[in-house]
Design brief:
The chain is an alpha+beta fold. It has one domain: START domain (Alpha-D-Glucose-1,6-Bisphosphate, Chain A, domain 4), CATH 3.30.530.20. The chain contains seven helices and eight strands. Strands 1-2-8-7-6-5-4-3 form an eight-stranded antiparallel β-sheet. The N and C termini lie close together (12 Å).
Length: 216
């Protein structure tokens, strides 16, 4: 459990604002260091076989201007790809042509760490009109990204990754999600969120990702 929670503490979370083609957006921003070369991290986030082992299986025309679809239904276009430093994609939910209102984009930036390894920055910008924020706040996507970046850390360390289905429902996975929801609530507050909305959003996010509270 300690190793899992250390991974949670390794990331820095902030909220910000952005402008998308659909209009104003809020951002969920994660920054953390991996003890692996930039080229290895880049390969892990762009090679279809490796990506499927820590994120989700992916199909599509995987090149700039092409499209992708993940096994969970998320899909979009590859907007920018500058190896081995920057990847930006649109990130849509729902059947094609019937996505949620607005749109979102995910950008990953890699740079060499000052003491070695790789600094990773992930920015998920979601249109203000998307329907999850009023209920869940930034934890709607933030907890999911925390879980995936934890999986990436393990994958980069030893080539293995927690099971996509089993880990989130395990005691360690549930505790990780609960604390991640709280951490995103703190980022929401620091970004100017209304305290009552933040508290309700953390509660809703925790109930979604870790139903049953603190039961082990």
């Amino acid at each position: 459990m300690k190793d899992v929670l250390d991974e949670l503490a390794a990331a820095r979370r902030t909220m910000g604002t952005a402008t998308l083609p659909a209009g104003d957006a809020y951002t969920m921003e994660l920054r953390r260091r991996y003890d692996a070369p930039v080229e290895d991290v880049w390969h892990a986030i762009t090679d279809p076989e490796r990506l499927g082992r820590w994120l989700k299986p992916v199909t599509g025309n995987l090149r700039p201007g092409g499209s992708f679809e993940l096994d969970g239904g998320e899909h979009g276009e590859i907007l920018r790809c500058d190896p081995p430093r920057r990847l930006r994609v649109s990130w849509l939910f729902g059947p094609e042509g019937n996505e949620w209102p607005g749109t979102s984009e995910v950008e990953v930036l890699l740079s060499p760490g000052p003491t070695g390894g790789t600094e990773l920055e992930l920015v998920h910008a979601a249109a203000v009109g998307e329907p999850m924020f009023p209920t869940y706040g930034p934890g709607a996507g933030g907890v999911g990204w925390d879980l995936r970046l934890l999986t990436l850390a393990r994958f980069l360390a030893d080539g293995e990754a927690p099971d996509h289905e089993e880990f989130p429902t395990s005691p360690a996975g549930r505790e990780f999600a609960r604390r991640s929801a709280v951490a995103w609530g703190e980022a929401h507050l620091a970004g100017g969120g209304d305290p009552d909305h933040v508290a309700a959003a953390v509660e809703a996010t925790t109930a979604f990702y870790a139903p049953g509270g603190n039961e082990r």
